[in-house]
Amino acid sequence: MKPALVLLSGGLDSATCCALAKKGGYTLYAMSFAYGQRHSVELDASKRLAQFFDVKEHRIVTIDLAAFGGSSLTSSLVVPKNRINDTSCGDIPNTYVPARNTIFLSFALGWAEVIGCTDIFIGVNALDYSGYPDCRPEYIRAYEAMANLATKAAVESKKMTIHAPLLHMTKAEIIKLGIGLGIDYSLTHSCYDPSPDGLACGCCDSCLLRKKGFEQAGVPDVTRYR
Predict the structure, then answer these.
(1) Which of these, 29, 83, 198, 220, has the minimum number of CB atoms within 10 Å of its CB?
(2) What global pTM score does this model have?
């Protein structure tokens, strides 16, 4: 069984991505990040999911993106609420964390080389999302091209592949897919601004997208809201 490294945030998308990798017959390795995010409760969700999917090894890497801030997820900026129901305003909200996916993928790329893995899975989505530039198809293609220029493995003809299987799916389609794969979405967490005891706010972009997805999928929303 080939190894696959999954970026496992603890959210709905990363859980579905992990399920797809498991269905593909890979031996699963998971990487999560404590990066100074206000919604660090998602790390508890990542641990639950790692156990649920029986990953071979789960690493939680500590980095300090709060050191330079610039995002309401890593600073005292206010998380925007109730923007609009479909969150497709056209602007990039302050929940965007500068260079986050580039940093995460770089850590994943390093660990992948160490464990002899050439397949990295990331749950980015270009349809139902908040306009983040590092969730676009052209970004994933560019990063994969860079990975195959920058690594010893690629030089030795072990091509790196960045899998983004949810890239062109709506949130409802992702949820339906995940239900079919047997995911328990009550294990996941998506909210950007949860209460101290981990309850979702129900009003941030991520919560709105999640609510909309469950509604359109015709699936009961198992999220614990305030």
Answers:
(1) 220
(2) 0.95
